[in-house]
Design goal:
The chain is of the alpha/beta class and about 250 residues long. The protein contains five helices and twelve strands.
Length: about 250
């Protein structure tokens, strides 16, 4: 058992992460391109992915795609797969103003920013990186209110003789003051006739609908162009007043 509770994330095992989160990209990429064309600055030519991890989506995006992450091991693996990446903190990164016409992050990584200050700083930095009219497609889990029951997802993936099966779940331990809960990531890696279990606990910030509305209003860089869900269909939009669960926000820089 590899077990970590402090200062370690699942990115510290990037080869395992890359297999387990290595589902096909076709639906996501089609959605991202369509969202940029419908609500943003046209089909993306220069894309930015915060929290890019090992570069699964970067490798599939059309045009020029650049990503960044804080975890050096994930970035090393991304580079070996031909990705253009750099190391930076998502809460305070800087690139040339207006250098990109599209930005995206789909898998709830935004909630790793644990304070209001970090969340605002991130949104402002992404907005500076985008040209006017461009969109930031941001996926995150949203609760109807602060009562957040435990939730779990379970799946397995296999590639090149490595099979990874496991569960990501929240523990239902939201702190009402900080709005932080614990996510448990636990998987078993099967390869070469051996099995090893990886278990990591990570803090995540919780967003109710009103929390998210307040954040976007207070930070002020984006307007909500549309809200979708993880069916990744631009024709399937969601009423923001009924937003709950896995959401995909299309945020446009005016």
């Amino acid at each position: 058992l590899w077990h970590a509770t402090t200062g370690v994330t699942f990115y510290d095992w990037p080869e395992i992460y890359d297999v387990w989160f290595g589902w096909p990209t076709d639906a996501e990429v089609r959605f991202l391109v369509a969202a940029s064309a419908r609500w943003g600055a046209g089909p993306p030519r220069r894309s930015l992915e915060p929290f890019c991890g090992t570069g699964r989506l970067l490798r599939a995006m059309p045009g020029t795609a650049v990503g960044f992450d804080l975890h050096a091991g994930a970035l090393r693996l991304a580079r070996t797969k031909g990705c253009t990446v750099f190391r930076a903190d998502a809460g305070r990164f800087a690139v040339a103003e207006g250098a990109f016409d599209f930005a995206f992050n789909l898998i709830d990584s935004f909630r790793h920013l644990l304070t209001e200050e970090a969340a605002r700083s991130h949104l402002a930095a992404v907005a500076r990186a985008l040209r006017p009219g461009a969109v930031y497609v941001l996926g995150l889990d949203v609760t109807g209110d602060m009562a957040r029951p435990p939730a779990a997802e379970e799946w397995e993936m296999e590639r090149d003789g490595v099979r990874v099966a496991g569960t990501v779940r929240t523990l239902g331990d939201v702190d009402g003051e900080t709005r932080v809960e614990t996510m448990e990531t636990r998987c078993t890696v099967h390869r070469g006739g051996t099995s090893t279990t990886v278990e990591v606990y990570s803090p995540l910030r919780v967003y109710g609908r009103s929390d998210l509305e307040d954040l976007l209003r207070a930070e002020g860089s984006f307007e909500v162009a549309a809200v979708c869900d993880r069916h990744y269909d631009t024709a399937r939009t969601v009423d923001p007043a009924r937003l709950e669960g896995s959401a995909v926000l299309v945020l446009r820089k005016p």
